[in-house]
Amino acid sequence: QIKAVIFDMDGVISNTVHLHYIVNKKVADRLGIAFNEEWNQKLQGLSRRATVQAIVEKSGVSLSDEEFESCCEIKNSHYIQLINELTEKDTQPGIRSFIKELKESGVTMVVASASQNASRVLTRLELLPYFAGVVDVTKLTRGKPDPEIFLKAAEMVHVSPTDCVAIEDGEAGLTGILQTEMFSVGVGSEPSLVRADLTLPSTEDLTIQVLEKALNRQDK
Ligand code: G6P
Ligand code: MG
C-alpha cells in the first residue's frame, strides 16, 4: 500500500528542464563556455548556487563573490520571466491524470524540488492544491544528492519512508532517494536512472497500477 508519493518537480511535473537550459546557457555564455542540453540534464536537481558553481568551475574563470552573486541573480530573474508565461499545458505528459488518480485514491503527495520557485510553478500549472506540502529548500542544510529533502518531505506528512514512493528524472535526486528506504522511480532516458527500483521511459507510464505491480514484485 502506497501512503505517500514524493515528486521532484522540474522534468517530472513541469516541462521546465528546457527553461533551466535557457537560463543556464546565459550563465555559460557570460563565462565564455559552450553549454548543451545534455549537460543541463546532468545538472538537474542541483540548487541554483550549485548549478552556477558547476558552470563556473568548468569554465576555469575565477569570479569575485559579487560576480558570482550576479550570475545567480541574472539566471533567476530570466527564469522568473519565463515561468510567468507557464500555463496548465506545461505539465509533463500524463502527469495531471496521475496526480488526480492519486488524489482520488487518498494518496498523500508532496513536492521535493530543489527549486525556490516550486510553489510559483505549481500555481501556474494549477496543481498546487493537490499537494499536502512543498519542502522549503531554504530551510535545508544540504541539497540533492543528499537525501535530506526526501526525508523532510516524508516527515512533513508523517509517513514512514518505507511507505513512500519517490519519483525523479535527475541523477542527483535519484542518488538522494537511493539513500533512503523509499521505493524509487526514475522517469526518462538519462542513463543513471537505471539505478532506480523502477525505471520508466516517460511520465506517461506512471499509474498506481504500474507502481503497485513493481512494489509487489519487490516484496517477493
Ligand atoms: C531544480 C532544477 C535545477 C535548478 C534548481 C534550482 O532542482 O532541476 O535545474 O537549478 O531546481 O532552481 P531555482 O528555481 O531555485 O533557481
Ligand atoms: Mg527534475
TrEMBL record:
Protein's recorded name: Beta-phosphoglucomutase
The organism's place on the tree of life at top rank: Bacteria
Cofactors that this protein relies on: Mg(2+)
Organism whose genome encodes this protein: Halalkalibacter okhensis
Annotated site, Important for catalytic activity and assists the phosphoryl transfer reaction to Asp8 by balancing charge and orienting the reacting groups, chain positions: S113, K144
Key words, A-Z: Magnesium, Metal-binding
Binding site for substrate: 8-10, 43-48, 75, 113-117, 144
A GO molecular-function annotation: beta-phosphoglucomutase activity
Active site: D8 (nucleophile), D10 (proton donor/acceptor)
Positions with a binding annotation for Mg(2+): D8, D10, E168, D169
Cofactor stoichiometry and binding remark: Binds 2 magnesium ions per subunit.
Family, as annotated: Belongs to the HAD-like hydrolase superfamily. CbbY/CbbZ/Gph/YieH family.
SUPFAM superfamilies documented for this protein: HAD-like
